[in-house]
Structures are given as C-alpha cells and as structure tokens.
Amino acid sequence: MPDRPLAGFRVGVTAARRADEQIALLERRGAEVVHAPALSVDPNRIDEEALQAATRAVLDRPVDIFLATTGIGMKSWLTAAERWGVMDELVEHLGKAEILARGPKSVGALRRFGLRELWAPESEEFEDVLAHLRGRDLAGQRIVVQEHGQSLSMAAHALRRLGAEVTTVAIYRVHAAEDLEPMFGLVESVVGGRIDAVTFTAAPAINAMMEAAATAGHRDDLISAFQADVIASCVGPVTAAAFEMWGVPSIYPERSRLAAMVKQLETELPSRAGGTSLEVAGHLLLLHGEDVLLDGAPVKLSPAPYAVLQALLVNPGTVVSRRDLLTALPSGTAGSEHAVEMAVARLRAAIGTRCVQTVVKRGYRLAVSS
C-alpha cells in the first residue's frame, strides 16, 4: 500500500470531537480535507436540574431492567451523581437491576463504576437490544433507559406497548455547531461534485447535515449525490443507521474506530473513483479525473506525454506501436515518430524511466506488475 493512497481525493469531515486526529489521519494519506463541524465542539450539554430530577425519580422505586446506551452518557450521569452526593446510592440501585448495554463503550463505562452488564449485542445497535426484549413478558416491569444525545421516546413507547413501565433519563442533548457556514459550504461542494467522500462519527451529525441541506434547498440533491458517487463513510453501524431513512447507502468498518474508518476509505475511494490505479515498476500510478499521481505525488504532464500515457493505459502492459501512439498525439503535434519519441521521453522524465519500457522494433509498454 503506498504512503499516500488518498492523494487526489477530497474528503469532508463532519466531526467536532477528535476532529484534529481524524484530519491528521486523512491528510497523512494524501487526502485534501474539508472540515465542516456538524455539531458543537461541546455538544453534550447537561441540564443539571432536569437530570437531578430524573435521577431522584429513578431512585424512588426499584428498577427491573436498565438499558445503558452510551459510554459518555453513563460517565456523565454518574459523575453528576457524585457531585450531588448520590453516586454510591445510584450505583447500588442500578446494580440490583438486569443491565443491558448497547456496546463496548457503555460496557466500559459501567464497569469503571462497578456495574456489570448481563448482555450486550455484538452489533452495538440499540434496535438489537429492543429485539432482545420483545420476546419477553415485560408486563409490570420497570425499565429505565439511559438516552444518548437524541430522544429515545419511540423506543420507550414500543416497550410500553409490551406492558413495561418505562422511565427515560436524558443525560445530555446534542447541539448543532455554533458556526454553520462551513456545513452549508460542504453541502454545496457535495452537490457540486467537488467532494469524493464525507465521514460521520455520530448519527446526529447526519441529521444536522440533512437539516442544513434542507434549509439551503439542496436536500434532494444531497441525497442524490450520496446515492450516486459520493461515499458516506460512517464510523460504525449505529451512525450508519441514521442514513437508512434517507435511502442513502453508507459504508462502515468492522471495528467502530476512527483508524479503521480511514483505512476502509484507502481502498474504497480509489476503487470507486472511476479512474485507473495500477502498480508500475514498483510505483503506484493513479489517474483520477485529469489528475495523475505517482505514489501519491501529483505529476504534471503536458498534452503529448499525457496522451501517450492514456494510450499505454488502454491495455496496461500491452505493447503499443509508435504508429498508434502517433495517432493518439493531440492535433498540432509534428506528425513523425520523432514526436512520439519526444513525448515518451517527457513521460519517462515525469514518472520514471523504468515505468515505460521500449520493446525493440515494436513500440512501448508500461512496466506493470504481473
């Protein structure tokens, strides 16, 4: 794999938290990054008064089942409870319940405070937590649901229809970025075909982008762009699920990690670019649109050597005669085999002498790896 596999590609980043880390990973691989935070830098704002009241309601009566949905939510709730002097009471209270956790982050947060989950889905999707409960008799069961940044009122309603008594605890609410101008700009760039992929690390970021697109009158165009050429890259299945209601296909890695998401783009972007990528004499040669890159570095070619390269790429490794290369040269080029030799010489100077091989009395070929 070359050092700069994403050279020549423009990637939109919607993250606010850990954005610098993600941008560095992408730029290190050669991508041009357009950063447009969808959410506030500090999106997880806690309403202390409301959370304290919800906590008292939870402590008021025994809990049969407790659903933990996010690591940061659990940490924020128990840290707040510590400030109020009721953390030990809350941990003991929840510890008597059957605890179901949505994924590894919520599991990790629970265990840091001495709580143990009974079950967690491999998928890390809250829908699978609900599916786990649907086959059970929930009549009279008191279920407490720790909400993430968005309301889980629909899930709570579904559980109530199964006979459960449900209490939701809103730890925080996600807020949009203070400056939305970069997001509007990113929407316009995606719609205008100037972005190859957009990354998402939280479902609310998808909703924020869709809202910005709707405000600008571009939501249908944005959806069409994602359905056509632009890759919607998500950090995991929970984030990707937010695209389903829009009919937008998305990709996500097996492990919900930033590095894994960027690694996936290393292969997805070149393969979908509609260009040509191949190994030539130990180098990676990439044609993306009108851009030519060698090992991730841009190569400037004048029309004649560019025409020769295009002719040699029609069937990589196949010998192309001087006569055919002469035909491929742009109009206005001197009509002799000397013009071909000059164009080949300039091409070799740009991409390396070993990349273009001379086949005696037959013509030239690219030194592609077998």
Which properties best describe this structure?
alpha/beta; Rossmann fold; Arc Repressor Mutant, subunit A; 4-stranded parallel β-sheet
Estimate the global geometry from the Cα principal axes. elongated
Structural class: alpha/beta
Termini gap: 16 Å
- For the record, the CATH class of the largest domain is Alpha Beta
Strand content: 15-25%
Query: Reading side by side through the largest sheet, how are the strands ordered?
Result: 2-1-7-8
Please tally the β strands and state the result.
Answer: 14
By DSSP (H or I, 4+ residues per run), the number of helices equals 15
The helix-strand sequence is EHEHEHHEHHEHEHEHHEHHEEEEHHHEE
How confident overall, as mean pLDDT? Answer: 89
Query: In terms of per-residue confidence, which ranges show pLDDT below 50 for 5 or more consecutive residues?
Result: none
Spatial extent as radius of gyration: 28 Å
Give the secondary structure arrangement, pairings included.
Blueprint: E1 10-13, H1 19-28, E2 32-35, H2 48-60, E3 65-68, H3 71-84, H4 87-95, E4 98-101, H5 104-112, H6 126-134, E5 142-147, H7 153-161, E6 165-170, H8 181-191, E7 197-200, H9 203-215, H10 219-228, E8 231-234, H11 237-240, H12 258-272, E9 276-280, E10 283-288, E11 291-294, E12 297-298, H13 303-313, H14 322-328, H15 337-351, E13 356-359, E14 363-366
Parallel strand pairs: 1-2, 1-7, 3-4, 3-5, 5-6, 7-8
Antiparallel strand pairs: 9-10, 10-11, 11-12, 13-14
